[in-house]
Amino acid sequence: MQIGINLQIRAYLQGPYEVTTGLMRDSLRSKGLIPLQQPYGGTPFNYAGTEALNRSLTSVSLGGDADALVDWLLVELRSATNPSLILAQKSVGVQADGDLMDVQTGSTNLSFLNVTTGNYYVALRHRNHLGVVTATAPALSFTHTFLDFSDPSFAVMGQNSRVINKTKALLWAGDINQDKQVIANGVGSDSTALITVVLSASANTAFNTSYRLASYAATDLNLDGETLAAGPGNDINLLITNVLSHPTNTSLAGNYILRGNGY
After folding, report:
1. Tell me, what DSSP letter sits at residue 104?
2. Which of 192, 148, 193, 139 is nearest to 168 (CA)?
3. pLDDT tens digits for 81-106?
4. Closest C-alpha to 7, from 164, 115, 87
């Protein structure tokens, strides 16, 4: 039985995506906010991987370079008979053009060297976007398999599991508290979590909702390096827009819950 699986994956995050360029902004990289250690060790991800970012990869700028680093993502291989069962994980970088890359080498070839060749569901998870899972369990092997989650015709679990922006499918932004839901109003709302972080910031002594909190945080939905609750470029508007514009929220209910599918 053969050992080793190689994947090439493309995916876009809605928050930093810019329709004018067709790329994701690399503000976290340019501001030096991307952590060198993979950020998925805590709940609910509980990933014990030791991936560390090669500092040289942070020097690649978006000034015409689609390979600029945007953020970290978590790739999971799941059982073909039970897609909720995680068999292997790898924390990777996502480039401005959606290509996922090895954070040590910069290669877009993602290797799972200790995994047996076979059929697996493939899941992508992010710290403030809803995750996605392939609709089927494709056959994976040492030969490179390309999975394009940014292609609207590429099948994933659930209906409307990605937001379609013209020709690209993007992962929904807004899951600040990482409960696999985007909630604008009501119990457990992500907007409340965002406002609380801004108002409780130690430097925000005036308790101003327009205070700009510069940090690498789940509350920074557009990945511009700042959490902003009110004012131009704020993060809450993206969250609310997603809830109100979701295809199944036909009544435009502010308390509609946008749920992640299958992950």
Report:
1. T
2. 148
3. 999 999 999 999 999 999 999 999 99
4. 115
233 by DSSP, 3-state: which? coil
Detail the DSSP E strand segments found in the chain.
3-10, 12-13, 17-18, 23-24, 69-79, 86-95, 100-101, 110-116, 118-125, 132-133, 139-140, 145-148, 162-165, 168-171, 181-183, 213-214, 226-227, 257-259
Answer for the pair 80, 140: CB distance below 8 angstroms, yes or no: no
Instruction: Report the SS3 class of residue 81.
Output: coil
Q: How confident is the model at residue 173 (pLDDT cuts 50, 70, 90)?
A: very high
The answer for 250, left when phi > 0, alpha when psi is -120 to 50, beta otherwise, is: alpha
Q: What is the pLDDT of residue 62?
A: 58
Beta strand spans in 126-215 (E): 132-133, 139-140, 145-148, 162-165, 168-171, 181-183, 213-214
Which residue bears the tokens 């600029």?
68
Which residues are CB-contacts of 256 (< 8 A; sequence separation ≥ 6)? 184, 243, 244, 246, 249
The Cα–Cα gap between 100 and 97 comes to 9
What pTM does this model have? 0.95
Tokens standing for 140?
A: 């994976």
Between the two ends of the chain, the Cα-to-Cα distance in Å is 28
